[in-house]
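EI: anyone free to look at a 274-residue chain?
SC: sure, send it
EI:
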Amino acid sequence: MIGKATLRSVVPRLEPGLRAERGFALITALWLITVLATLVGLSMAATRLGNQTTINRIVLARGRWAAEACLAITQARWEQRDLADTATIDLGREVRCAWSVDDPTGRINLNTADPEVLRGLGLNETFVRALLARRRQGPVEDLGQLADLPGFDSGLVALGTVVGPGSINLSSAPRPVLRAIPGLTLEAVDRILYRRSVGRPLTSLDELAADLSPPSRATLMNDYADLARLATFTPPQLVVRAEGWVEGHAPRATIELLVVPLPERLAVVGRRMW
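SC: here you go
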């Protein structure tokens, strides 16, 4: 028989083990609860991310549809000879689009311009040399690619472009671009800008020459062959950019077309989308 005193002496020796087991079980349970809570949280986050990704894809698809609609409107406006209105267009159900038309020949094509023209624009020699070396690797596709070249000047590079045929439209180019063209004196540039300002733009180099003083005319005629190759008085190409979006959502779709303006339509020769 085990007496009460003996039982009391045994029980205390068992209590620390029991407490340790219970403590371990409690820690295990809490750990399992934490792991499960984490897994549930990750699952919910993944679900939310998946839902948002799906929403973004839908919004982007609707934006692309809207951009395509704006390009169709641009074609119709061209046929009607009315490209001036580029206001945002409400396509319904919170879908909107906007479009713009740009004449790349109003700027200097940095992919094709002669070094003399680049220097005439005011670009420093370090940048000109770096640009020529970069061009030997292939055409520049975006002006942002030039930012790391030594001597980069964002203000002057903004007067350039990397699209278009390389000619310069004297009917749309700004003064700094006109001044960079060999054969055009200050008088010739002023005359071109004046004729544009009064709504009677020049239509040919011969018309410009006839409107100049003898010294400026002689300078023009001396570089006539190069001018005839470089200068134009109507845009041979245009860049049409359309943007579509859903109101209140961040993803926007952009489609950019390089087109040749024909009397009856805008003929697409290049297309980019992002």
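EI: The chain has two domains: 1-103+235-274, 109-232.
SC: 👍
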